[in-house]
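User: Structure tokens for this complex, please. No commentary.
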Amino acid sequence: MKDLIDILDLTTDEIDALIEKANDIIANPDNYREKCRYKKLATLFFEPSTRTRLSFEAAMYELGGNVLGFSDAGSSSATKGESVSDTIKVVEGYADIVAMRHPKEGAPTIASMKTRIPVINAGDGGHNHPTQTLTDLLTIKRELGKLDNLTIGLCGDLKFGRTVHSLIQAMVRYENVKFIMISPKELKLPDYLVEEVLKKKNVDFIETESLEEVMPQLDVLYMTRVQRERFFNEADYIRLKDTYVVTPSKLENAKKSMRILHPLPRVNEISVEVDEDARACYFRQAANGKFIRMALILKLLGIE
Amino acid sequence: MHIDEIINGIVIDHIAAGKSMEIYKLLNLDALECSVAIIKNVPSKKMGKKDIIKIDEALDVNLDALGYIDNGITINTIENGVKTNKRHCELPERIKNVVKCKNPRCITSTEQEIDHIFKLTDRENKVYRCIYCEMKAK
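Assistant:
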């Protein structure tokens, strides 16, 4: 495997190996400090991001490597009209591996087809975000000890939420995983995921608009933000943005062992008071993002 | 109705009735100098009605494109007035530059000179999806 564009580029065995490697990095960080010495990661972020870019950069620095790149399209030659194909051909002369975020769906796919160095999709529009999914899987495994036999509630923007799409694709491959989709009608899961993934694989799932009703069933509550940047119409965004807010009182009926995940940033969909609840693990999840990206960089560079 | 036999060329047969103009446009047959006959609504035992296109010139046709439009089509090659080859179209695994991705969020909407490639994701329902953004071909 040269690149990571879609979470399905990885088999479940490969995912398990990455999780194992990330756990080893967490346990023995000193063993990895020099692994990527003299290697360079290019972070090509055509769209703003905080945690994804910083976690990639932190991951490369912790492996002893270096980082170069840009953090928004305004400071790149994209503003001069340069294509993704040309950008990647230039960058391959300077870096050993690339992490790319782009507002257009499929941009990292094109990049991967045009270069010999590994390309990691760090988010392409509303499409895929495989390293977030790896982060989510590592977090679920560390918090609950397993990736099978779980009921997972996905709540909020399921239409444009790329993290949700990738997580579903990854989790349907594990035994006895049930999904509960919680969203307003306007932000329901796209038809291709329902028809070609959930129904085709006979995955147990229900769609609902009520978070309260399903809360007691959940092992994982995966919250998402309604993303302003995905709407062409501001009025639709304003109407839908406050549909779901998790508060301590709403968690009263939840299992004690349930875990609340969120890819972050949050706006107001999880009340700050919830942060103190042991079930809230979104900040631990963000920290896990660095370790799984370290494991991924090592794998794609062929370093043990 | 009488149409001259072709000597060297191809006959695209078993086209679903009404689809011949779509194929004419897809294969850019308007650019040919030779005789091209579009015969519509020909009685057919198997299909009830069908369309046929006769092209009086040896031509490499894009079988994948034809298979995408209608995988029941057959292509007969005629040499010196004799049928020398008969090929059946199949649903192709991939199609390149046959249809364009209509998703405004797809990279194909902005990247210059990029091939529009779709892959078959559901053979039963003939669903093709853009390899970049996974939008269904329309």
